Amino acid sequence: RLPPSDSFKMLSLYRGMRLDPGQLESWLLSAGYIRETSVYEQGRWSRRGGIIDIGTYGTENPYRIEFFGEEIESVRIFDQHSQRTINRVGSAKILPAREIVLTPDEWNAAADHVPDGHPLEEYMYGASDFPGIEHHLPLFFDKSATIFDYLAEIGTLILVEPGRLNSVIQETIDARRSAFPVDLPFSFQDTFASWMEIEESMNGCKRILEHSLVPSGSVDVYLPTEPQTGFMDHRQEMFRQIRQWRDSDFRIVVACDTTAEMNSFRDLLPDDLLEPVELGVLSISDGFVLRSENGGGVAFLCERRLLSTRRRPERVRKFRGGETLASWEELQPGNYIVHESYGIGQFLGLKRLSVADGDVDCLEVIYRDGDKPLVPLEQ
């Protein structure tokens, strides 16, 4: 079982919010965050005076919360490697670093459930966590939940091999029951859901997709495909299999990543297989074989997987992203910058222009061929 869905607590922080930094520290500790000297990954936090860095889940970069007394003065996103500011944001949502975030009242209630002298008693006072706390939820909550209580109403429940779910889940429940400690101040039913409860929750889902190797009832289309076989370093065995498909009235198609690979594969084929094997350029991850009930079928093959185990290389972006400047003050003369409208240039410095409406501060940037457009600070 899981904690009630309404017990999943997020902390919202925003500029101008009144908050004691000590209260934020207490929340981070109760939410499972680990204190470090610097934040380099999620689930960590650090403090230097009035600045608290938090590596929360759900974001690629950590937040830097700057306090002025008991008021949040700024909320920034920074790069965990360079420690430089990426952008100023108005607010931040901090997710808990573990499943359970408990209040002092919930700890006090748990202490009332634990008998005097019980081994759990030592964890009940002055603790924010203990090993295996997720298996002791009945101590803290009067009512628990299951994974189905966390699913969105518009979501889809996917059941793989639904015919085996009953037996597999029941075997798991029986194994857990046999190993369940008898000295805990709560029962097995308080900790694990029954198959009846699970089945009822599944039936209550509005959209269910069942995935079975073999259909159990009437279906409109059923294609019993087989995975493609590889012939690494066994070229003659590949030719033998292709001839067998040809003699069995199979349509044989080989998909190649590029035209060059298609031409190279054509050069490998013996003369008697040039006509029955259809070649084309189509990038796929794997192939399949589909057999017809009346004989014959289709062998749709991935050239890359026939004679090697190489996978299609991932497309690598030449540009992986840069740092968004929070302020022009971070620029130093000579720095190269990328402007979303003007492109790549070199920052020369700040220049003030006198116009009809008054003075305007502009960034002086030099581009190729010596062009020096003046970019107003607000742009």
End-to-end C-alpha gap: 53 Å
Strands, total number: 19
Strand content: 25-35%
What spatial form do the alpha-carbon principal axes imply? flat
Strand order, main sheet: write it out: 2-3-4-5-6-7
> Treating each run of at least 4 consecutive H or I residues as one helix, how many helices?
8
Question: Can you walk through the features of this model?
Answer:
A hairpin with a 3-residue loop joins strand 16 and strand 17. This protein has helices at 21-30, 104-113, 165-178, 188-191, 195-203, 235-247, 259-268, 303-306, and strands at residues 11-14, 34-35, 44-48, 51-55, 63-68, 71-78, 85-89, 91-94, 157-160, 208-211, 225-227, 250-256, 277-281, 288-291, 297-302, 336-339, 343-355, 358-366, 374-376. By secondary structure, the chain is an alpha+beta fold. It is flat, with a radius of gyration of 32 Å. The strands form 5 sheets. It has a 6-stranded mixed β-sheet with strand order 2-3-4-5-6-7, with helices on one face. A 5-stranded mixed β-sheet has the order 11-14-15-12-13. Mean pLDDT is 84; it is low at 316-320. The protein contains 8 helices and 19 strands.
Short account of what is shown:
Helix content is 20%, strand content 27%.
For this entry, give a set of tags.
single chain; six-stranded mixed sheet; five-stranded mixed sheet; 20% helix; flat
Produce the secondary structure layout.
Layout: E1 11-14, H1 21-30, E2 34-35, E3 44-48, E4 51-55, E5 63-68, E6 71-78, E7 85-89, E8 91-94, H2 104-113, E9 157-160, H3 165-178, H4 188-191, H5 195-203, E10 208-211, E11 225-227, H6 235-247, E12 250-256, H7 259-268, E13 277-281, E14 288-291, E15 297-302, H8 303-306, E16 336-339, E17 343-355, E18 358-366, E19 374-376
Parallel strand pairs: 2-3, 9-10, 12-13, 12-15
Antiparallel strand pairs: 1-8, 3-4, 4-5, 5-6, 6-7, 11-14, 14-15, 16-17, 17-18, 18-19
